[in-house]
Amino acid sequence: MRIFTKKLPHPDLPAEEKAQLLQNTEYQEMMVESTFMYLTLDLPTAPLYKDEKEQLIIPQVPLFSILAKFNGATEKEYKTYKENFLKRFQLTKLPPYLIFCIKRFTKNNFFVEKNPTIVNFPITNVDLREYLSEEVQAAHTNTTYDLIANIVHDGKPSEGSYRIHVLHHGTGKWYELQDLQVTDILPQMITLSEAYIQIWKRREEDETNQQGA
């Protein structure tokens, strides 16, 4: 993965001083290559509003909206104690398996908050070709992924519980596991859950041909 980083001047500085600083080398964009074990997907801030019946509305966001973080063009601001940075991310390789970690939990000095936003995602045919740099797209014949496992967090951050959805490869059926209890589940029900961690498997050539037949 390529990470493009640009240092930002302090926001309280006068405009002329900011313009001068942006000419310095330390404020120019830098690129580094980095390996990754999983991809962190950032959720938008959940609006706390209610409908006409005074019931809390749970927001939703498409998976491809939060995957845009890795398209090489989307910039996000990162703040440290002293400095601010803009960063862009772009994938340079697609491994056989991908792990998505949907960032639901935010920790501050007092407590942990959970973002309840529902991520709308397809179970199959997630094509990640557009998130590859142009020069490496040709080296990737298969860029389509299918979901094989989905970890869900239910409830509050401090007292919630976990469920796991797992695809049985031999039968193509989905099962839900919680503690020692195993039940079958319809694929469309998986997309309604508060997904936290997902495992995706890259479709191989023979699998792609079977799907297209």
UniProtKB/TrEMBL annotation:
What Enzyme Commission number(s) appear in the record? 3.4.19.12
Q: Which residues form a coiled coil?
A: none
Recorded GO MF terms = cysteine-type deubiquitinase activity
Is Lyase there in the keyword field?
A: no
Could you tell me which Gene3D superfamilies the record lists for this protein? Answer: Cysteine proteinases
Q: Per the database record, which ranges form the USP domain?
A: 1-203
Entry-linked SUPFAM superfamilies: Cysteine proteinases (SSF54001)
User: GO biological process annotations for this chain's record?
Assistant: protein deubiquitination
Catalytic reaction list: Thiol-dependent hydrolysis of ester, thioester, amide, peptide and isopeptide bonds formed by the C-terminal Gly of ubiquitin (a 76-residue protein attached to proteins as an intracellular targeting signal)
InterPro entries reported in the protein's UniProt record = Papain-like_cys_pep_sf (IPR038765), Peptidase_C19_UCH (IPR001394), Ub_carboxyl-term_hydrolase (IPR050185), USP (IPR028889)
Tell me the Pfam families matching this sequence: UCH (PF00443)
Name this polypeptide is given: ubiquitinyl hydrolase 1
Q: Which gene encodes it?
A: Usp39_1
